[in-house]
Design a protein that fits this description.
This protein has 239 residues and is an alpha/beta fold. Helices cover 36% and strands 19% of the residues. The longest helix is centred in the middle third of the chain and has 25 residues.
């Protein structure tokens, strides 16, 4: 299944990816490049939803959260994802792609609240849907939110956009001898303790037979290649 063209996918985009070469915040030029990659994939007829992280904003001020109650700190992180989602929405709409942001934290003056049936209706109407604020609960990462939303909207694959072109046995930047994997099973990911996504997200995908594809958001055309069945990615699925 992972090599066939997909009809509906969910992309997990880290906040760090949106800061480009900067050390903090958003890089408008790179956000526009990411939006262009998504637009090109969307023009293939694929229904696209995204979950965005907030690390580019929250981690930059995380020292301020030292000693803070964990739930409050996580709420700050959720708000950071809202900023990123709105920035990406703006970039998408500049390119002529109708885009909706849905948030797990209700803020009606900013965007609409997450509602599964409404999200699917948007996708069926050819809109890109961006999910923000994680699951709306503390102690859950945006990786877990991505797995949850992908299952809820019946996505065919969860794509994780990263800085490298797949999953490696070690950090390829630090270890030139790191082995790249073309395919893995969920069992292998867990047994090798590969840091693809957090344990909750991996388990949720395995239990729902949802494949994961890990690709580089920095490589132009990689997203379209993955969606077209010619993956420049590591594919993770059971069996």
């Amino acid at each position: 299944m992972a090599t066939q063209q997909k009809r509906r996918v969910l992309i997990k985009l880290s906040g760090e990816a949106l800061m480009g070469d900067r050390g903090y915040g958003l890089d408008p030029d790179f956000v526009s490049e990411v939006a262009s990659e998504i637009r090109n994939a969307h023009q293939m007829g694929v229904q696209i939803a995204l979950v965005v992280g907030g690390g580019n904003i929250f981690r930059g001020v995380s020292s301020s959260a030292v000693g803070m109650q964990r739930s409050r700190a996580d709420q700050m992180g959720m708000l950071a994802t809202v900023i990123n989602g709105l920035a990406l929405q703006s970039a998408m709409e500049t390119l002529g792609v109708e885009t909706v942001v849905q948030t797990a934290l209700e803020m009606p003056k900013v965007t609409e609240a997450f509602q599964r049936d409404r999200a699917v209706a948007h996708l069926n109407e050819n809109r890109v849907v961006i999910f923000v604020a994680g699951t709306g609960n503390p102690f859950f990462t945006t990786d877990t939110a991505a797995a949850l939303r992908a299952c809820e909207i019946d996505a065919e694959i969860l794509l994780k956009a990263t800085k490298v072109d797949g999953v490696y046995s070690a950090d390829p930047v630090k270890d030139p001898a790191a082995q790249r994997y073309d395919r893995l099973t969920f069992t292998e990911v867990l047994a090798k303790d590969l840091k693809v996504m957090d344990l909750t997200a991996i388990t949720l995908c395995r239990e729902n037979a949802l494949p994961i594809g890990v690709f580089s958001i920095y490589e132009k055309g990689a997203l379209a290649a993955v969606l077209g069945g010619q993956p420049k990615a590591t594919i993770i699925e059971e069996g």
